[in-house]
Design a protein that fits this description.
The complex is a heterodimer of chains A (about 325) and B (about 80). Chain A is built from 4 helices and 18 strands. Chain A is an alpha+beta fold and about 325 residues long. In chain A, strands 1, 2, 3, 4, 5, 6, 7, 8 and 9 form a 9-stranded antiparallel β-sheet that branches. A 7-stranded mixed β-barrel of chain A has the order 10-17-14-15-12-11-18. Chain A has a two-stranded antiparallel sheet with strand order 13-16. In chain A, β14 (about 250) and β15 form a beta hairpin. The longest helix of chain A has 23 residues, at about 300-325. Chain A is elongated. The mean pLDDT of chain A is about 95. Chain B has a single domain, classed as OB fold (Dihydrolipoamide Acetyltransferase, E2P) (Beta Barrel), CATH 2.40.50. Chain B is built from no helices and 8 strands. Chain B has strands at about 1-5, 10-15, 30, 35-45, 45-50, 55-60, 70, 75-80. Chain B has a 4-stranded antiparallel β-sheet, with no helix packed on it. The interface between A and B is medium-sized, with 16 and 16 residues.
Chain lengths: ~325, ~80
């Protein structure tokens, strides 16, 4: 079974839940940027949560199936078309051999996921099929899809939900154009002046089009930094520090003007002061921000972050139970 | 005569010319062919071409150079002779 790619879309890659445990060697975890949507797409076709699937950014692919399969589309709001006819998202859709699948415009969100029963069957690198282009690891030949690709799909190993199974509307995420992201301040927020710190949390930041799997750049205000003589090893920009680790979701503000949220394909360290870090429960939300999204960084503490993570997991468990029938 | 709207498929920054200081791809009143480039969208550090879906005459460019596109937004109107 394979998928014959007619048009690849803007940036369609094979992803799974990533390759954790190598960050200290400079290899990011990577994987689906919106993990919940990826896990639910897999559940809707009877796959394990970590099965490989397509992550489509803004503009999806057009492809033809060579054999019958199950397809589920989750994530950003987009019209799925099978042979030109509308078919539901967040649902188990049966395809027959020769079906031609295409997509309309994204109307909310940024990334959507296509899972196929059996999973995308490309070789693993370091325990994962996730495409990490910078490091030439995983995916379909370590790159985004291209026209003419013939992408293999594995053999389903277990039972799958019946075609027509859908995630109830009230359990689906929404993708507003105004977003609050919860962040934990630090480790270097003390490098900001009091006014700078106040601006970080009060400003409305607008997502620029410079937003990919590595990082998302915002604009909207200027942060003031405390003056100091740069220590040996730090650069001359006031936001420079002697190199330190970057958590996934960390926010750096080169030059004080454009905060960048580092996402799952980002580097593990560098010389910009991390002023705050988006909590893990909100990283999927970051992944779904479209350029122009108005964003505020809302300060929370570790207890709130852990409670949000628990709540996120419980929501995902409820969603998985709902599609399991 | 009918009018065809060319719409943005992806979000990003709209550019009317291939580079700073270069002439625009098309002006209002220009005749275009199907598949002809009418602008660029910059997104994720890459540039994607916006092409006309039809042959005809450009009657309007709806988006300013450097403005932000959202998917489905009308970019240009093309008059087609029936």
């Amino acid at each position: 079974m394979s998928l014959e790619i007619e048009q690849p879309g803007l940036h369609t890659t094979v992803q799974d839940l990533g390759r954790p445990g190598l960050y200290h060697l400079g290899i990011p975890q990577g994987g689906a940027l919106d993990r919940s949507s990826a896990i639910l797409a897999n559940a809707l076709v009877g796959n394990e949560p970590a099965a490989a699937l397509f992550e489509c950014t803004y503009l999806g692919p057009t492809f033809t199936t060579t054999e019958p399969t199950l397809l589920a589309v989750t994530g950003a709001s987009v019209q799925l078309l099978v042979n030109g006819d509308p078919a539901p998202s967040w649902a188990t859709v049966a395809l027959v051999a020769g079906d031609r699948v295409s997509f309309g415009y994204v109307t909310a969100g940024a990334r959507y996921y296509l899972a196929f029963a059996g999973g995308i069957d490309v070789p693993e690198d370091l325990g994962s099929r996730s495409t990490y282009q910078v490091g030439s690891l995983g995916g379909f030949h370590n790159r985004a899809l291209a026209a003419g690709d013939d992408v293999p799909v594995g053999t389903p190993s277990g039972p799958a939900p019946a075609p027509g199974t859908a995630l109830p509307e009230e359990l689906r995420p929404v993708f507003p154009t105004e977003v609050d992201l919860r962040v934990i301040p630090g480790l270097y927020d003390h490098r900001l002046t009091e006014a700078g710190r106040e601006t970080l949390f009060s400003a409305t930041w607008r997502l620029t089009p410079v937003a990919d799997r590595t990082g998302m750049r915002f604009e909207g205000a200027t942060l003031d930094w405390r003056e100091r003589v740069p220590p040996f090893g730090a650069g001359s920009d006031p936001s420079n520090i002697v190199d330190a680790g970057y958590p996934v979701g960390s926010i750096q503000v080169p030059n004080g003007t454009q905060p960048i949220i580092l996402h799952r394909d980002a580097v593990s360290g560098g010389g910009y002061a991390v002023v705050a870090t988006v909590i893990s429960a909100d990283l999927d939300r970051v992944a779904q921000c479209m350029p122009g999204t108005n964003t505020r960084f809302v300060e929370v503490d570790m207890d709130a972050a852990l409670a949000a993570r628990r709540a996120g997991r419980e929501h995902l468990e409820r969603s998985l139970a709902a599609v399991a029938g | 005569m009918s009018t065809v709207e060319i719409t943005a498929a992806i979000p990003g920054v709209f550019y009317r010319s291939p580079g700073p200081g270069k002439d625009p791809y098309v002006q209002e009143g220009d005749r275009v062919q199907a598949g002809e480039v009418i602008g660029l969208t910059e997104i994720m550090k890459q540039f994607a071409e916006i092409t006309s879906t039809t042959a005809g005459v450009v009657t309007a460019i709806h988006v300013a150079n450097g403005a932000l596109l959202t998917p489905g937004m009308p970019v240009a109107s093309i008059d087609v002779e029936d």
